[in-house]
Backbone:
């Protein structure tokens, strides 16, 4: 199974979107880094030059990923997962703390962030587990095992602590749901999130009043069916307890900067100079782009470095400012199209392993895309996670490349496998 | 169903993001502005204001650097208030008040903490300023006056008011603008055009180079230098003569309409309105409601012209052909008209013809010819309008259109005016009702510049050029048609000679015969105007105004002037003396009538001005 014989079967649409996003990413990193740089192109301390090197190296990586026999990924997925977890554990011994997070291995001048790669490893492990003939995801025992598979990296990453990266693992709820876990899990998750947000936004008094009113309303509607009153009281009470606990967690467990980030998005506190600075500056940068933007390297907000972390997490604000609505729309459309394409491909896989893996890739990309863009355009609290393929960073780019191209490799063999 | 969940979530978030982006980027324009405020700062390069010279190239107004202590409130760090206040010589309360105001104005834009340091203060502070982030010293240019007079002509510069900023987007907070005089009238020429630099800022508000490589930047255009028609020597001498007197003097070069001197007394030193004492000094000048130093009497004061008006009535009578030079009228100590009413006159030979009428200033003569003018036509209304039109052709009774930003129209009545006050046609009025106009009292009032212009028109034998004060802009003579075109009066040139002869005889044998200046043939006319004020609501007569008009030399007039000295009693007393002195000063540069100069300089009218304010009964015309 050589690369050359399989070349026609690679999904070129996905590869093209990948290349387009990487190119757009680099162009914007170049622009966002201009101020800090001396303008000398072949200077390997420059952000834009370094990113170009990462991109070139990732092409080498792609050739390697596509060259490996697709059976390799399935066969060694458990080992890869164990190695990945080991690398996270290893951080606590050999890791380096950067910006308060013990998330990096420093080898010479290169920094590697293993948690980026663990996503791909976990996806492989999840695919392997769910495709196992022994596994029945309808049973509670197997559900628990699947959750443990996700929980291990979450706990390790939270310990770094990097809550943003940990949040991404909730993406696995989508492949699990696709493979058959009960709808209630999903519903519970969304309902809890809804209660969480409404409690923070309106205070628990209003939420409790609302819960009681809705419960009473439903009960009266159904009273001819002689419903079980106890059941209603139990559900309402659980909601109320949850609502109280949200308040408690928010006030006592969250750190102040977490609270601030929520409050900004909920519009409760407007302090554009302090905590809301990132979001506000990002909105100004994007908003000042207009229809067609200020032009490449012409963004005044970008040049003035008003948006913090602009070449990494906030790279989309550069797109918004310099390419305007047109450019931002194209980027959003590329992502939407890429994710839909991946879902489509995943659904068409012959093997459960490939399908679950493909579904996991799409979900992970979606959660990154959703959280990152929402944050940059001011719809979500500040969570430090990158925009796949666009944001600066070697580990991130490589990890997403690995994640994506393993699936492209698997997909190229869908007619061969079984 | 399970397949569709993520699928629809992806599409749903795509739609949400697109909608949010549309809102941010397309529908809400506030972000564009915020971005500009945020990232681009505008720096203005204000050019030097033009210099001002007199007609002989003598520098009147130059510029001097000045240093202001500025603050950008948001950049202030921990501040040793006590030491800082000691350094600036201000109290802690003052500093807090100033900083509070600066914060209200804008936390990110500079405000003035302490304006206009002296050079010594600047040198001292400059070295220590680095210790106080947020504060800095800004250089700007102020006026540097080379003369201590002519403030009424020059005007001053001051910070623009919010109203002007609103009306004219050129100006921004803190810009300087010309107020009054030349500074206001020729603001655009003097100021030039400021240059603009757009500077890209980073998040620390540091400059990181020109915005868009400077394609929107403009370079400043230097202010233009102005040469005025004013003769500095004459102006200074005039102001010296007017010291301790109130009134206005306007001197014009008849052939060109150039204003040689424009004196308003009391004046003030223009340097008072520069520097840190500016606002204190301005307040003092502004609230001096008695002497009114900011009130330009040369342009604004409307006085009855008195007997100087007789020359123009003589011209009208000749033009209307109601008299000839030899027609005589007898005068028995005055002119009787109506039912026992009499206009008094002083002792002089009788009967009076035109020549004698002028040089002896005979009231009876002019009352008679005035009646002939008005009564020439079937109705007094027609006569009155005819008379009024002749006067208006001399630039009286309306704005002259001169290039100074202030002025008054004076008043020349017409039939409409008298119809209204006499309630015509219910009641009728005749020439005798307006007889005071014959001798420049009654309803006629003029400003000094109008009367000087009238004198210039007589000197020119029938035309005048609108008086103006601008001679050259950046060294190039002006070519505005309004200041070069001759404006002809309605009087034929041949009628001027007998009247001018009469004015010449005023000096030879008339009311100014003791005021002759050796070697100069001056033509003049005295005027003594009754005037009134209200004291506790009661109309009270004050000492007469001393008025004089003159031009010289007789056959080739180089200077024409009008002088009003408030409450100076008769025309020859103050104004007449000054006229001779000024004419000689201008034509010869020296003074031969030292006795007259000595007399004028040694006298003050302050006592006279104090009388109506004393609250006690007083006597006039002493």
Residues:
């Amino acid at each position: 199974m050589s690369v050359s014989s399989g070349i026609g079967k690679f999904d070129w649409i996905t590869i093209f979107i990948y290349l387009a996003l990487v190119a757009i990413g680099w162009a914007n990193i170049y622009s966002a880094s201009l101020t800090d740089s001396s303008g000398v192109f072949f200077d390997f301390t420059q952000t834009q030059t370094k990113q170009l090197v990462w991109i070139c190296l990732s092409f080498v990586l792609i050739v390697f990923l596509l060259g490996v026999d697709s059976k390799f990924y399935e066969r060694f997925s458990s080992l890869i997962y164990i190695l990945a977890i080991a690398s996270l554990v290893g951080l606590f011994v050999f890791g380096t703390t950067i910006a308060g997070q013990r998330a990096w291995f420093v080898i010479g001048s290169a920094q590697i962030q293993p948690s980026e790669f663990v996503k791909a490893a976990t996806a492989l492990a999840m695919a392997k587990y769910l495709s196992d003939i022994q596994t029945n995801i309808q049973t509670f025992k197997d559900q628990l095992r699947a959750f443990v598979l996700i929980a291990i990296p979450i706990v390790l990453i939270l310990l770094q602590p990097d809550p943003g990266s940990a949040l991404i693992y909730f993406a696995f709820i989508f492949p699990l749901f696709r493979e058959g876990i009960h709808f209630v899990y999903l519903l519970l998750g969304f309902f809890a999130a809804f209660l969480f947000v409404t409690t923070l936004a309106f205070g628990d008094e209003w939420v409790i009043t609302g819960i009681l009113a809705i419960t009473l309303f439903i009960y009266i509607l159904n009273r001819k069916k002689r419903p079980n009153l106890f059941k209603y009281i139990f559900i309402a009470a659980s909601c109320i307890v949850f609502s109280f606990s949200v308040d408690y967690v928010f006030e006592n467990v969250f750190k102040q900067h977490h609270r601030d980030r929520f409050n900004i998005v909920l519009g409760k506190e407007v302090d554009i100079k302090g905590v809301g600075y990132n979001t506000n500056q990002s909105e100004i940068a994007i908003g000042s782009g207009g229809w067609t933007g200020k032009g490449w390297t012409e963004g005044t907000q970008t040049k003035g470095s008003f948006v913090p972390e602009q070449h990494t997490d906030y790279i989309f604000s550069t797109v918004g400012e310099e390419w305007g609505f047109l450019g931002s729309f194209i980027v959003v459309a590329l992502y939407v199209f890429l994710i839909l394409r991946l879902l489509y491909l995943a659904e068409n896989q012959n093997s459960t392993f490939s399908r679950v893996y493909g579904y996991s890739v799409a979900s992970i990309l979606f959660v990154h895309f959703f959280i990152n863009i929402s944050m940059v355009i001011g719809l979500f609290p500040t969570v430090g996670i990158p925009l796949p393929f666009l944001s600066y960073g070697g580990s991130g780019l490589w990890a997403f490349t690995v994640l994506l191209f393993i699936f492209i490799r698997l997909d190229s063999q869908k007619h061969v496998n079984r | 169903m399970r397949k569709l969940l993520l699928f629809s979530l992806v599409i749903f978030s795509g739609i949400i993001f697109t909608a949010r982006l549309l809102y941010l980027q397309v529908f809400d324009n506030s972000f564009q502005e915020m971005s500009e405020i945020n990232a681009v700062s505008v720096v203005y390069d204000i050019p030097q204001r033009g210099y001002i010279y007199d007609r002989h190239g003598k520098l009147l107004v130059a510029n001097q650097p000045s240093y202001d202590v500025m603050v950008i409130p948001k950049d202030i760090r921990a501040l040793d208030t006590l030491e800082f206040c000691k350094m600036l010589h201000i109290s802690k309360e003052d500093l807090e008040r100033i900083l509070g105001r600066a914060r209200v104005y804008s936390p990110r834009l500079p405000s003035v903490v302490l304006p206009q340091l002296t050079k010594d203060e600047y040198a001292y502070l400059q070295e220590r300023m680095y210790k106080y982030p947020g504060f800095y010293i800004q250089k700007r240019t102020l006026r540097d006056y080379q003369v201590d007079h002519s403030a009424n002509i020059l005007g001053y510069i001051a910070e623009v008011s919010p109203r002007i900023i609103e009306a004219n987007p050129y100006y921004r907070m803190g810009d300087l603008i010309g107020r009054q005089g030349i500074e206001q009238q020729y603001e655009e020429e003097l100021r030039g055009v400021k240059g603009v630099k757009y500077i890209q800022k980073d998040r620390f508000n540091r400059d990181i180079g020109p915005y868009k490589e400077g394609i929107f930047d403009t370079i400043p255009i230097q202010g233009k230098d102005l040469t005025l028609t004013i003769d500095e020597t004459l102006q200074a001498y005039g102001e010296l003569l007017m010291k301790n007197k109130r009134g206005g003097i306007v001197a014009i070069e008849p052939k060109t309409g150039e204003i040689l001197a424009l004196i308003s007394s009391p004046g003030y030193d223009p340097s008072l309105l520069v520097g840190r004492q500016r606002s204190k000094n301005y307040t003092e000048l502004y609230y001096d409601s008695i002497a009114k130093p900011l009130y330009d009497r040369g342009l604004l004061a409307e006085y009855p012209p008195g007997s100087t008006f007789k020359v123009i009535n003589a011209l009208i009578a000749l033009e209307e052909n109601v008299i000839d030079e030899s027609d005589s009228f007898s005068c028995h100590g005055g002119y009787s008209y109506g039912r026992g009413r009499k206009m008094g006159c002083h002792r002089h030979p009788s009967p009076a013809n035109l020549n004698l009428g002028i040089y002896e200033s005979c009231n009876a003569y002019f009352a008679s010819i005035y009646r002939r003018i008005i009564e020439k036509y079937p109705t007094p209304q027609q006569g009155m309008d005819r008379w009024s039109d002749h006067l208006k052709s001399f630039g009286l009774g309306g704005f002259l259109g001169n290039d100074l930003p202030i002025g008054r129209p004076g008043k020349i009545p017409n039939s409409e005016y008298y119809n209204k006050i006499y309630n015509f046609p219910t009641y009728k009025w005749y020439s005798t009702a307006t007889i005071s106009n014959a001798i420049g009292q009654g309803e006629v009032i003029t400003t000094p510049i109008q009367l000087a212009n009238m004198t210039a028109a007589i000197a020119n034998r029938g035309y005048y050029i609108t008086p103006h004060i601008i001679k050259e802009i950046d060294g190039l003579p002006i070519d505005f048609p309004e200041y070069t075109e001759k404006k002809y009066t309605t009087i034929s040139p041949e009628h001027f000679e007998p009247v001018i002869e009469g004015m010449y005889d005023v000096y030879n044998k008339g009311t100014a015969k003791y005021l002759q200046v050796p070697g100069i043939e001056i033509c003049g006319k005295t005027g003594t105007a009754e005037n009134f004020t209200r004291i506790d609501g009661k109309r009270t007569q004050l000492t007469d105004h001393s008025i004089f008009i003159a031009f010289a030399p007789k056959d080739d007039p180089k200077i024409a002037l009008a002088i009003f000295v408030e409450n100076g009693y008769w025309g020859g007393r103050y104004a007449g003396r000054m006229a001779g002195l000024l004419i000689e000063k201008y034509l010869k540069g020296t003074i031969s009538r030292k006795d007259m100069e000595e007399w004028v300089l040694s006298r003050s009218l302050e006592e006279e001005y104090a009388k109506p304010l004393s609250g006690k009964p007083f006597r006039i015309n002493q």
In short: The interface with chain A takes residues 2-3, 5-7, 9-11, 13-14, 16-18, 20-22, 24-26, 28, 30-32, 34-36, 38-40, 200-203, 208, 211-212 of chain B (CB under 8 Å). Chain B has a mean pLDDT of 88. Residues 230 and 260 of chain B are 4 Å apart (CA to CA).
